[in-house]
Amino acid sequence: MSQKGSCTTSCASKWAFYAGILAVLYGLGSYLQSINSSFYRMSPEGLNDVFQHTIAGAKAAGQSNNATWLVENVIDGITDKYPDVRFRKDFTDASQWMFNNAGGAMGSMFIIHASVTEYLIIFGTGTGTEGHTGVHTADDYFHILKGQQLAYAPGALVAEEYNPGDVHHLPRGQVKQYSMPRESWALEYAQGWIPLMLPFGFADGLFSTLDLGTMYKTTFITARHMIGNLLAGKF
Ligand SMILES: *[C@@H]1O[C@H](CO)[C@@H](O)[C@H](O)[C@H]1NC(C)=O
Protein backbone atom coordinates (compact mmCIF):
# COMPACT_ATOMS: atom_id res chain seq x y z
CA MET A 1 0.00 0.00 0.00
CA SER A 2 2.74 2.46 0.99
CA GLN A 3 4.78 1.33 -2.01
CA LYS A 4 1.84 2.05 -4.30
CA GLY A 5 1.37 5.46 -2.70
CA SER A 6 5.02 6.45 -3.24
CA CYS A 7 4.82 5.38 -6.88
CA THR A 8 1.79 7.60 -7.42
CA THR A 9 3.83 10.60 -6.30
CA SER A 10 7.09 9.75 -8.07
CA CYS A 11 5.31 8.54 -11.21
CA ALA A 12 3.32 11.76 -11.40
CA SER A 13 6.48 13.86 -11.21
CA LYS A 14 8.17 11.61 -13.77
CA TRP A 15 5.29 12.07 -16.22
CA ALA A 16 5.30 15.83 -15.59
CA PHE A 17 9.01 15.81 -16.44
CA TYR A 18 8.43 13.86 -19.71
CA ALA A 19 5.55 16.16 -20.65
CA GLY A 20 7.83 19.15 -20.03
CA ILE A 21 10.55 17.70 -22.28
CA LEU A 22 7.98 16.97 -25.02
CA ALA A 23 6.66 20.54 -24.82
CA VAL A 24 10.20 21.93 -25.14
CA LEU A 25 10.99 19.62 -28.11
CA TYR A 26 7.72 20.55 -29.78
CA GLY A 27 8.43 24.25 -29.28
CA LEU A 28 11.96 23.83 -30.66
CA GLY A 29 10.62 21.83 -33.64
CA SER A 30 8.04 24.51 -34.47
CA TYR A 31 10.67 27.22 -34.18
CA LEU A 32 13.16 25.36 -36.42
CA GLN A 33 10.37 24.76 -38.94
CA SER A 34 9.47 28.46 -38.97
CA ILE A 35 13.05 29.62 -39.64
CA ASN A 36 13.88 26.87 -42.18
CA SER A 37 12.32 28.63 -45.16
CA SER A 38 14.30 31.83 -44.51
CA PHE A 39 17.43 29.99 -45.72
CA TYR A 40 16.07 28.96 -49.14
CA ARG A 41 17.77 30.50 -52.18
CA MET A 42 15.83 28.56 -54.84
CA SER A 43 12.09 28.07 -55.25
CA PRO A 44 9.87 25.36 -56.79
CA GLU A 45 8.40 28.04 -59.13
CA GLY A 46 11.81 29.30 -60.28
CA LEU A 47 13.10 25.79 -60.91
CA ASN A 48 9.90 24.85 -62.72
CA ASP A 49 10.42 27.82 -65.10
CA VAL A 50 13.89 26.55 -66.02
CA PHE A 51 12.61 22.97 -66.25
CA GLN A 52 9.70 23.86 -68.60
CA HIS A 53 12.04 25.96 -70.72
CA THR A 54 14.44 22.98 -70.99
CA ILE A 55 11.67 20.53 -71.95
CA ALA A 56 10.35 22.94 -74.62
CA GLY A 57 13.89 23.59 -75.89
CA ALA A 58 14.58 19.86 -76.19
CA LYS A 59 11.39 19.37 -78.18
CA ALA A 60 12.28 22.24 -80.53
CA ALA A 61 15.81 20.89 -81.01
CA GLY A 62 14.65 17.28 -81.46
CA GLN A 63 16.60 16.26 -78.32
CA SER A 64 13.74 15.05 -76.08
CA ASN A 65 15.30 11.57 -75.81
CA ASN A 66 18.84 12.85 -75.29
CA ALA A 67 19.43 12.69 -71.53
CA THR A 68 22.81 14.40 -71.87
CA TRP A 69 21.22 17.35 -73.67
CA LEU A 70 18.43 17.60 -71.07
CA VAL A 71 20.75 17.46 -68.04
CA GLU A 72 23.26 19.88 -69.58
CA ASN A 73 20.58 22.43 -70.46
CA VAL A 74 18.66 22.23 -67.19
CA ILE A 75 21.87 22.73 -65.17
CA ASP A 76 22.93 25.66 -67.42
CA GLY A 77 19.48 27.25 -66.99
CA ILE A 78 19.60 26.90 -63.20
CA THR A 79 23.11 28.36 -63.01
CA ASP A 80 21.96 31.38 -65.05
CA LYS A 81 18.84 31.85 -62.92
CA TYR A 82 20.61 31.64 -59.56
CA PRO A 83 24.06 33.22 -60.05
CA ASP A 84 24.57 33.55 -56.27
CA VAL A 85 24.09 29.85 -55.44
CA ARG A 86 27.00 27.37 -55.50
CA PHE A 87 26.41 24.64 -58.11
CA ARG A 88 28.46 21.82 -59.56
CA LYS A 89 28.05 21.44 -63.30
CA ASP A 90 30.56 18.70 -64.22
CA PHE A 91 27.99 15.91 -64.66
CA THR A 92 29.91 14.49 -67.65
CA ASP A 93 32.65 13.49 -65.15
CA ALA A 94 31.52 9.97 -64.17
CA SER A 95 33.54 10.14 -60.93
CA GLN A 96 31.04 12.74 -59.62
CA TRP A 97 28.14 10.25 -59.91
CA MET A 98 27.25 7.70 -57.24
CA PHE A 99 24.71 4.97 -56.62
CA ASN A 100 21.91 5.52 -54.15
CA ASN A 101 20.18 2.57 -52.46
CA ALA A 102 17.23 3.54 -50.30
CA GLY A 103 13.81 2.13 -49.56
CA GLY A 104 14.55 -0.90 -51.73
CA ALA A 105 15.04 1.27 -54.83
CA MET A 106 18.35 1.77 -56.58
CA GLY A 107 19.42 4.64 -58.77
CA SER A 108 22.36 6.91 -59.45
CA MET A 109 22.73 10.59 -58.68
CA PHE A 110 24.79 13.68 -59.38
CA ILE A 111 24.66 16.38 -56.69
CA ILE A 112 24.25 19.88 -58.17
CA HIS A 113 23.76 21.61 -54.80
CA ALA A 114 23.49 20.43 -51.19
CA SER A 115 23.21 22.64 -48.13
CA VAL A 116 21.52 22.27 -44.74
CA THR A 117 18.09 23.35 -46.04
CA GLU A 118 18.11 22.59 -49.81
CA TYR A 119 19.39 20.00 -52.21
CA LEU A 120 19.25 19.71 -55.97
CA ILE A 121 20.31 16.52 -57.74
CA ILE A 122 19.95 14.63 -60.97
CA PHE A 123 18.51 11.25 -59.98
CA GLY A 124 17.58 8.37 -62.20
CA THR A 125 18.20 4.85 -63.34
CA GLY A 126 19.60 3.12 -66.39
CA THR A 127 17.83 -0.20 -65.78
CA GLY A 128 14.64 0.89 -63.99
CA THR A 129 13.82 0.59 -60.30
CA GLU A 130 10.99 0.43 -57.77
CA GLY A 131 10.68 1.09 -54.03
CA HIS A 132 9.60 3.22 -51.07
CA THR A 133 9.94 7.02 -51.28
CA GLY A 134 11.10 7.28 -47.66
CA VAL A 135 9.59 9.41 -44.89
CA HIS A 136 11.17 12.83 -45.23
CA THR A 137 11.43 16.05 -43.25
CA ALA A 138 11.62 17.92 -46.55
CA ASP A 139 9.27 18.84 -49.39
CA ASP A 140 10.33 17.00 -52.52
CA TYR A 141 9.87 18.14 -56.15
CA PHE A 142 10.67 15.49 -58.75
CA HIS A 143 10.91 16.98 -62.28
CA ILE A 144 10.85 14.29 -64.98
CA LEU A 145 13.39 15.10 -67.70
CA LYS A 146 13.23 11.76 -69.49
CA GLY A 147 11.32 8.51 -68.98
CA GLN A 148 8.58 8.24 -66.38
CA GLN A 149 7.72 7.84 -62.71
CA LEU A 150 4.67 5.99 -61.37
CA ALA A 151 3.58 6.48 -57.75
CA TYR A 152 0.67 5.80 -55.45
CA ALA A 153 -0.29 6.01 -51.78
CA PRO A 154 -2.11 3.15 -50.02
CA GLY A 155 -5.81 3.32 -50.82
CA ALA A 156 -5.26 4.49 -54.39
CA LEU A 157 -6.14 1.76 -56.87
CA VAL A 158 -4.83 3.75 -59.82
CA ALA A 159 -1.21 4.97 -60.18
CA GLU A 160 -0.25 8.62 -60.57
CA GLU A 161 1.77 8.94 -63.78
CA TYR A 162 4.53 11.53 -64.28
CA ASN A 163 6.03 12.07 -67.75
CA PRO A 164 8.62 14.54 -69.14
CA GLY A 165 7.50 18.07 -68.20
CA ASP A 166 5.58 16.81 -65.13
CA VAL A 167 6.56 17.54 -61.51
CA HIS A 168 5.77 15.08 -58.72
CA HIS A 169 5.48 17.05 -55.47
CA LEU A 170 5.79 14.86 -52.38
CA PRO A 171 4.99 16.99 -49.28
CA ARG A 172 7.05 16.34 -46.15
CA GLY A 173 5.85 13.32 -44.20
CA GLN A 174 3.91 11.70 -47.06
CA VAL A 175 4.94 8.26 -48.30
CA LYS A 176 4.35 6.42 -51.56
CA GLN A 177 5.57 3.45 -53.52
CA TYR A 178 7.19 4.49 -56.79
CA SER A 179 8.73 3.00 -59.90
CA MET A 180 10.72 4.26 -62.87
CA PRO A 181 11.31 2.36 -66.12
CA ARG A 182 14.73 2.13 -67.82
CA GLU A 183 16.56 5.35 -68.70
CA SER A 184 14.42 7.63 -66.55
CA TRP A 185 16.13 10.79 -65.30
CA ALA A 186 14.80 13.57 -63.11
CA LEU A 187 15.84 16.85 -61.52
CA GLU A 188 15.04 16.44 -57.82
CA TYR A 189 14.75 19.44 -55.51
CA ALA A 190 14.19 19.16 -51.75
CA GLN A 191 13.50 21.92 -49.22
CA GLY A 192 13.62 21.25 -45.49
CA TRP A 193 16.15 19.83 -43.01
CA ILE A 194 18.37 17.92 -45.42
CA PRO A 195 20.67 16.23 -42.84
CA LEU A 196 17.58 14.49 -41.40
CA MET A 197 17.05 12.82 -44.82
CA LEU A 198 20.49 11.23 -44.78
CA PRO A 199 19.75 8.23 -42.50
CA PHE A 200 17.23 6.97 -45.10
CA GLY A 201 19.82 7.54 -47.81
CA PHE A 202 22.28 5.30 -45.96
CA ALA A 203 19.94 2.63 -44.55
CA ASP A 204 20.17 0.19 -47.47
CA GLY A 205 23.93 0.74 -47.67
CA LEU A 206 24.37 -0.10 -43.99
CA PHE A 207 21.95 -3.02 -43.80
CA SER A 208 21.82 -4.43 -47.31
CA THR A 209 24.40 -3.56 -49.97
CA LEU A 210 27.38 -2.95 -47.59
CA ASP A 211 28.81 -0.91 -50.48
CA LEU A 212 31.32 1.04 -48.39
CA GLY A 213 32.85 2.76 -51.42
CA THR A 214 29.50 4.30 -52.37
CA MET A 215 28.75 5.31 -48.76
CA TYR A 216 32.17 6.92 -48.42
CA LYS A 217 31.76 8.77 -51.72
CA THR A 218 28.24 9.95 -50.80
CA THR A 219 29.43 11.20 -47.41
CA PHE A 220 32.52 12.89 -48.87
CA ILE A 221 30.72 14.64 -51.74
CA THR A 222 27.70 15.67 -49.61
CA ALA A 223 29.96 17.03 -46.86
CA ARG A 224 32.04 18.93 -49.45
CA HIS A 225 28.85 20.63 -50.70
CA MET A 226 27.41 21.35 -47.25
CA ILE A 227 30.63 22.65 -45.69
CA GLY A 228 31.45 24.72 -48.78
CA ASN A 229 28.02 26.30 -48.58
CA LEU A 230 28.26 26.94 -44.83
CA LEU A 231 31.63 28.66 -45.35
CA ALA A 232 29.97 30.79 -48.04
CA GLY A 233 27.22 31.71 -45.56
CA LYS A 234 24.53 29.45 -47.07
CA PHE A 235 22.73 27.43 -44.39
C1 LIG B 1 23.05 14.77 -77.15
O1 LIG B 1 23.39 15.98 -76.50
C2 LIG B 1 24.78 16.20 -76.34
C3 LIG B 1 24.93 17.43 -75.47
O2 LIG B 1 24.32 18.56 -76.02
C4 LIG B 1 25.40 16.30 -77.73
O3 LIG B 1 26.80 16.49 -77.57
C5 LIG B 1 25.13 15.02 -78.51
O4 LIG B 1 25.63 15.16 -79.82
C6 LIG B 1 23.63 14.76 -78.56
N1 LIG B 1 23.40 13.45 -79.19
C7 LIG B 1 22.66 13.33 -80.29
C8 LIG B 1 22.48 11.92 -80.79
O5 LIG B 1 22.13 14.28 -80.83
Report on this structure.
This protein is α+β, with helices and mostly antiparallel strands and 235 residues long. It has five helices and ten strands, in the order H-H-H-E-E-E-E-E-E-E-E-E-E-H-H. Strands 1-2-3-10-5-8 form a six-stranded antiparallel β-sheet. A four-stranded antiparallel β-sheet has the order 4-9-6-7, with no helix packed on it. Helix 2 packs across helix 3. The longest helix is centred in the N-terminal third of the chain and has 35 residues. The protein binds 2-acetamido-2-deoxy-beta-D-glucopyranose. 2-acetamido-2-deoxy-beta-D-glucopyranose binds next to helix 3. Pfam families: ERG2_Sigma1R (PF04622). Keywords: Endoplasmic reticulum, Isomerase, Membrane, Transmembrane, Transmembrane helix. Pathway: Steroid metabolism; ergosterol biosynthesis. It is an enzyme of class 5 (isomerase).
